[in-house]
Amino acid sequence: MLKPKTIMLERNSFPFGLILAILLPALAFGILYSIYGLLETQGWVSTGGFRPMFRERTCAIFAIAMDGFLLNYFQKRYLHNSVRGVVIVIALMVIGWLVMFGKYVF
């Protein structure tokens, strides 16, 4: 009997969830940081009046939030092992964000 084709993102494995949860925010951070730099060179945004490390903090928190979409995708398809990988990465990234940027926020 032939197996139905599976979509690549529908793998239920812990390492797969870890890898995607690391790659997606890294890619998102790079894109957001580049867009912010482009907007600054065009004169549409300025860095004046913001707290230190504003661009990095904001891009990093949005990049971490992108994993929420990945988490939702895996949960809707009952891919629990992949969800575990994503949750661990999100938790570690949030802790890392607080360690790196917490002094600039509080």
Task: Outline the secondary-structure elements.
Blueprint: H1 14-41, H2 54-76, H3 80-105
**Total individual domains:** 1
Note poorly predicted spans. Answer: none
How far apart are the termini? 61 Å
- Proportion of residues in β-strands: under 5%
What class do helices, strands and sheet pairing give?
Answer: mainly alpha
Biggest β-sheet: count, sense, barrel? Answer: none
Radius of gyration: 17 Å
Query: How many individual helices?
Result: 3
Instruction: Give the number of DSSP strands.
Output: 0
Q: What does the average pLDDT come to?
A: 89
| Helix amount | over 70%
Helix-strand string: HHH
- Overall morphology: elongated
Describe this structure in words.
- The chain is mainly alpha-helical.
- The chain is built from three helices and no strands.
- The model has no long low-confidence stretch (mean pLDDT 89).
Short description:
With 106 residues, the chain is an all-alpha fold. It is built from three helices and no strands.
Search tags:
106 residues, mainly alpha, 0% strand, elongated
